[in-house]
Amino acid sequence: MLEFGGAVTEVSLGAPAPMAGSVLAIGAFDGVHLGHQRLIQAAVADGWRLGLQSVIWTFDPPPKVVFGRAAPLCGLEEKLTRIARLGPDLIVVIPFGPSYAARTAAQFIADLTRISPRHIHVGADFRFGARQSGDVALLAEHFPVTLAAPVCCAAGETISSTRLRDLRTRGECGSALMGPEAALICAPSGAHMTLNLHHREAMDGWN
Ligand SMILES: Cc1cc2nc3c(=O)[nH]c(=O)nc-3n(C[C@H](O)[C@H](O)[C@H](O)COP(=O)(O)O)c2cc1C
Ligand SMILES: Nc1ncnc2c1ncn2[C@@H]1O[C@H](COP(=O)(O)OP(=O)(O)OP(=O)(O)O)[C@@H](O)[C@H]1O
């Protein structure tokens, strides 16, 4: 459980308990940059509007990191802290490794179904399932999907974790793309807060 300004965000490591209705945003969210924040805020706002739990469904480590295509921008604690500040009711953290990556698109849709999404927010390039076989068109066959408009920087370029990784390689922090609390990410390691994650035992539970 994480608390900011009186708002409480629960964290489920692994399969969440079944829910009767929810609003969802899904993604790796490495760095929780301004584009991610807009997506997450849209889900939180919809949750309020519809009277449903807002759920942020993410993966740890980010799939690109697991597949060796990127180095992570931040660790799980920083990511959870930055997401929780945006006020969702629940963050689902899927331990991402070879066995989860092998789940088919249909199995992933079944995973989502257990929390009864009434609305899902993703970007147009969202992919899921083994070998990235699922796309937003398939997702939209099963749930109402809202596609996020790309959030760009002042220079008009789309913000992405990839861009931030490139900036970091050049020794820049990219704080203008990170928004509030960028310092958390940009701080030297060791300055991170420690979370007490109570849900380690919930790592199993997939059918
Ligand atoms: C069940 C499942 C299986 C996945 N399998 C693969 C995979 O085989 N190869 C891959 O590169 N990414 C795989 N991914 C990662 C997705 O392509 C994608 O990175 C993830 O859904 C997060 O979306 P995002 O990258 O838009 O944040 C998988 C994702 C899910 C949910
Ligand atoms: N600038 C952005 N504006 C709106 N949505 C975004 C933006 N960047 C990412 N998203 C969306 O957020 C979700 C999570 O994205 P993801 O974690 O893959 O971030 P990313 O910045 O695209 O990462 P990477 O550069 O490593 O591919 C996806 O649905 C993606 O489409």
From TrEMBL:
Domain of life according to the entry: Bacteria
UniProt KW Signal keyword: no
A Pfam family the protein falls into: FAD_syn
GO biological process: FAD biosynthetic process; riboflavin biosynthetic process
Pathway: Cofactor biosynthesis; FAD biosynthesis; FAD from FMN: step 1/1
Enzyme Commission no: 2.7.7.2
Signal peptide range in chain numbering: none
Record field: catalytic activity: FMN + ATP + H(+) = FAD + diphosphate
Entry-linked InterPro entries: FAD_synthase, Rossmann-like_a/b/a_fold
Top-level class of the enzyme under EC nomenclature: transferase
Keywords from the named record: ATP-binding, FAD, Flavoprotein, FMN, Nucleotide-binding, Nucleotidyltransferase, Transferase
FAD synthetase domain mapped to chain residues: 20-163
Statement: the UniProt record of this protein carries the keyword Nucleotidyltransferase: yes
Molecular functions (GO terms): ATP binding; FMN adenylyltransferase activity
Record's protein name: FAD synthase
Organism from which the protein derives: Pseudogemmobacter humi
